[in-house]
Design a protein that fits this description.
5-stranded parallel beta sheet; alpha/beta; 8-stranded mixed beta sheet; 13 strands; about 350 residues
Length: about 350
């Protein structure tokens, strides 16, 4: 493979721009896109002027020169799209969540195994965050010993007036733990090195938008392995006065040190920009500016497509993170019904 030619299908979430840019940075070529919505298509075409709008999905599926499809379609539609793409001998990169039900997860797993295609999810709060990538390097190097606890905080601004109708429908977006906390589930597995985890408790609620009862604006997960525990909190409650969409944080506790990642966009202590990492160990406390750290995911994914390997992200961790989020979502909704 000298050049990976890819197409974008389903532009419903603006994460599609991050996915496309990730692939282009790595050397792939965007050769077209399919999107039925004229407004979304026009916006996308204005950014990627050399990529033609393709009339039907089938044209893309039947084009053997296209090796990968990337999608940020409505969340509930991503699994079926991925299945069709893999059945047409194409690899797939989707936005999170990759699916919105355990049944969809089972079907994607089965088709992936049958076809041998790559199915990957761009968990952007890990793979597009230089500070989180740096934290992974430090943990792998033993900088804080063995990881025993992780706290993942994922606040987001609602920006209600900009959201499409599907964003407020539970059947379409999958629930807050599936939609947002899948990021933190993936990071828990990554930093602890675990292959699975037990959901100890999970909860969801709607505290701020009672006129949109299907939207969940807060969610929590408590999970564990034999060696580590984790706490996850996500919400749609970032205040308007915050200078960014959300003050995402990651706290990693090890046996000989700790890491705090103010990794997404802002340092409330006053330093400019994002991607701040704080390492505390036996030698003291160090602030590390991670803004220049390379993001290897795209390059590794293209290598995986060429070599049929799993260096960008092991397939099982990709699936397991979604499984944990889906299981936690089900537990939380059952608990809410009881109350």
């Amino acid at each position: 493979m000298t050049e990976l030619r890819f197409a974008a299908v389903g532009l419903n979430h603006n994460h599609i721009y991050g996915q496309v840019n990730c692939l282009i940075r790595a050397g792939a070529r965007l050769v077209g896109f399919h999107e039925p919505d004229d407004a979304l298509a026009a916006e996308f075409a204005g950014v990627y002027k050399d990529a033609p709008r393709i009339a039907t999905l089938q044209q893309i599926l039947e084009d053997d020169s296209i090796g990968l499809i990337t999608s940020a379609a409505v969340s509930a539609e991503r699994a079926e799209l991925a299945i069709r793409a893999m059945q047409h001998r194409k690899d797939v990169l989707v936005d999170k969540p990759g699916m919105t039900s355990l049944d969809q997860l089972a079907k994607v797993r089965r088709v992936q195994a049958e076809t041998g295609r790559i199915f990957s999810i761009l968990y952007s709060e890990h793979f597009e965050s230089p500070a989180t990538v740096k934290a992974g390097e430090l943990v792998a190097a033993g900088a804080i010993g063995a990881v025993v606890h992780l706290v993942g905080l994922g606040p987001h601004r609602l920006r209600r007036e900009t959201r499409p109708d599907w964003f407020f429908r539970r059947s379409d977006y999958g629930g807050i733990l599936v939609d947002i906390a899948s990021h933190q589930c993936e990071q828990f597995l990554f930093f602890t090195g675990a292959g699975d985890a037990t959901i100890l408790s999970a909860s969801i609620d709607n505290r701020s938008v009672p006129d949109k009862p299907e939207l969940q604006d807060t969610g929590n997960i408590h999970l564990s392995t034999a060696q580590a525990t984790g706490t996850i909190h996500v919400n749609w409650l970032t205040p308007d006065g915050m200078p960014t969409w959300g003050d995402g944080r990651l706290f990693i506790v090890g046996t000989t040190g700790t890491i705090e990642v103010r990794n997404k966009t802002v340092d409330l202590a006053g330093r400019e920009g994002g991607n701040h990492l704080f390492l505390a160990d036996r030698n003291g406390v160090e602030h590390i500016d991670c803004s220049g750290v390379e993001l290897p995911f795209g390059r590794q994914l293209l290598d995986d497509i060429r070599d049929r390997t799993e260096t960008a992200m092991p397939r099982e961790r990709c699936f397991k993170a979604m499984e944990l989020a889906l299981r936690a979502q089900a537990i939380a909704e059952q608990n809410r019904e009881k109350n």
